[in-house]
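Incident log, support desk, overnight shift.

02:14 A customer reports that sequence design results differ from what the structure should imply. Their input is reproduced verbatim below. On-call engineer (initials T.W.) acknowledged and began investigating.
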């Protein structure tokens, strides 16, 4: 089957936001607990909607308050700290040159997603952008991918979802789409890679994706 539609996650896949996210989480932990968390615990939330993670990590704090602390700190450092992963900008341009449909399907809010995409200079190469603002259900529920496919008029068998977390992989599989795990993923374990939800493909470098098409 020839793939003609590529869906990219944003955080940890297209954009190197790992340091930004960890620092934002640690700020919340410092405010609410007086200490910091193990980074492995924070990385385990990568790809999950923020409200879900906050409710689990700070059950004694209203979710809206925890998110306010997180986002208030992050907005001050966001644009300065984020950069695209090596090769990702050139990959998106190359996909469009080949005539493929290209979209971002992320759990991040639209405003900060757009800040990042505009900074990287890739917005004009994207056919669609789906954020958490466009969905009522979030990864690993298939809704974000299904909305992307509908808007792009693409069939599941024609699409690939590229991500860095099992939330991305499961979201793709739940929508009937094959998944690609990036080699710079921070939160995927050997156990995940040997599970029934393991991704079909793995790429070490951004340009490796072109070999799958």
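02:41 Re-run completed on a clean worker. Output:
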């Amino acid at each position: 089957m020839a793939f003609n539609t590529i869906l990219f996650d944003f955080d940890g896949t297209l954009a190197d936001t790992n340091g930004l996210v960890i620092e934002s989480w640690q700020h919340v932990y410092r405010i609410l607990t007086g200490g910091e968390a193990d980074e492995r615990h924070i990385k385990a939330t990568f790809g999950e909607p923020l409200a879900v993670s906050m409710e689990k990590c700070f059950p004694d704090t209203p979710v809206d308050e925890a998110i306010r602390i997180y986002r208030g700190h992050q907005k001050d450092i966001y644009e300065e700290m984020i950069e695209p992963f090596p090769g990702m900008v050139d990959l998106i341009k190359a996909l469009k040159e080949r005539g493929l449909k290209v979209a971002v399907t992320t759990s991040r809010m639209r405003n900060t997603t757009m800040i990042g995409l505009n900074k990287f200079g890739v917005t004009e190469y994207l056919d669609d952008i789906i954020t958490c603002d466009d969905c009522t259900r979030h990864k690993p529920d298939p809704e974000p991918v299904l909305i992307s496919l509908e808007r792009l008029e693409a069939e599941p068998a024609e699409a690939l979802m590229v991500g860095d977390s099992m939330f991305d992989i499961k979201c793709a599989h739940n929508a009937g789409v094959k998944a690609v795990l990036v080699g710079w993923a921070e939160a995927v374990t050997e156990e995940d890679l040997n599970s029934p939800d393991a991704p079909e493909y793995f790429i070490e470098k951004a340009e490796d994706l072109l070999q799958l098409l």
